[in-house]
Amino acid sequence: KINKLIMKRLFYFVAVLFAVSVVTSSCATAKKATAPTGLVEQTLPLSEARHRTDAEYYRAVQSGKSTDMSMAKKVAIQNARQELAASINADLESVVENYAANRQLPSDEKSTFETRMTELTYTIVQQRLSGSTLSDEKLFTTPTGEYQYFVCMQLNKADMKEALLNELQKNEKLISDFEISEFRKLYEKKLSEYQQ
Question: Which residues make Cβ contacts (< 8 Å) with residue 139, sequence separation at least 6?
């Protein structure tokens, strides 16, 4: 009777071990199958959350490479400013389109309005980019002896918004049929999307 009890417990113990072994090996196999063969993951410099656009700042991370360290930094800053401009212009284009749609402008007026707004906002963005600041940087040397400079540039969204709205109010061609409060509301809504 005792032998039967021992045998049952031993059998149960072996069955549990076998089940755990099967589950563990199948999980390990599944993990191995999903990893790409021959690829090694690299960590990108300046890739933390504090280097990404948020509700307060537009941010861009870019790099520049040169045999001259200061030139590598200049190239990185220029590349980052171009990326900032692209992000800001994309947001403004979306706001202008939403504004024109909300105002239900006829197609010919809508096209003229969007063209004038795009030209004006492009000019303002280019002017404001000079106020972008360097928030972080990293310097590397390559195996060939070149410098590779990584920078994170940022531009305050509130400053950008106020500069844009001030310039829009000064523009006589736009202000006659322009609801600045409606545009401000749509712009602020667009900027708040980054809070999620």
Answer: 69, 72, 73, 147, 148, 149, 150
pTM of the predicted protein model? 0.74
* Alpha-carbon span 98 to 113, nearest angstrom: 12
Taking CA 88 as the corner, what is the angle to CA 84 and CA 90, rounded to the nearest 5 degrees? 115
Structure token digits, residue 68:
């001259």
In this structure, the number of other CB atoms found within 10 A of the CB of residue 45 comes to: 19
DSSP 3-state of 66: strand
Over residues 158-173, the pLDDT tens digits come to: 999 998 888 888 876 6
- The DSSP code for 36 is P
pLDDT digits (tens, 9 = 90+) for 117-160: 888 888 889 888 988 999 999 999 999 999 999 999 999 999 99
